[in-house]
Amino acid sequence: MTVIRSTKDVNALTLTFVAEFAAPVDRVWQVWADPRKLERWWGPPTWPATFERYDFKPGGAVRYHMTGPDGTKARGWWVITDIDEPNRLEFDDGFADAEGEPVDPEDLTHAVVTLEAAGPGTRMTTVSTFRSAEQLERMAEMGMEEGMRQAMGQIDAILAG
Predict the structure, then answer these.
(1) Which residue, of 11, 52, 60, 65, is most buried by count of CB atoms within 10 Å of its CB?
(2) What is the tens place of the pLDDT at every residue in 128-137?
(3) Are 139 and 14 in contact (CB under 8 A)?
């Protein structure tokens, strides 16, 4: 399995995923940098993503939606806060309204993705930091941990293609 560990730490307000891939760092970087590749895994298999705006640079805005099996659209936004290609990506992430704009700009998580060589492959560590224990628990109740495990489980097929 791609995800080798996930850890919810209520004291640190974090949810961490560690995944390993049989591909070099620069190839794994592309599953973040290329929105068409990102669409193939961001979201669990039954909730595929569509990225409508993808300004991949510090300060850049990202707008996307995931479409559920019944056609329901769950919208989200990112603001990219830092990029150190091909090793680190940071962004703020939150829920969006029907126009793709933040529902509540203060109700966000901050994600830090790091990629490092691990033998012949890559270890990807993704840490989401929440603003409160209540926000972390709300996202956990919504299935974020299992959803991210399923989503990241799709990356191997992208890297193999």
Answers:
(1) 65
(2) 999 999 999 9
(3) no
Residue in 17, 12, 26 with CA at minimum distance from that of residue 126: 17
Note the CATH architecture for domain 3-160.
2-Layer Sandwich (3.30)
Q: How many CA atoms lie within 13 A of 33 on its CB side?
A: 15
Between the alpha carbon of residue 74 and those of residues 53, 57, 117, 131, 135, the distances in Å are 15, 24, 34, 21, 18
What is d(CA 79, CA 94) in angstroms, rounded to the nearest whole number? 9
Whether the CB-CB separation of 4 and 136 falls below 8 Å is answered with: no
Q: Residue 104 corresponds to which tokens in the numbers above? A: 């509540």
Q: Does the pTM of the predicted model rise above 0.85? A: yes
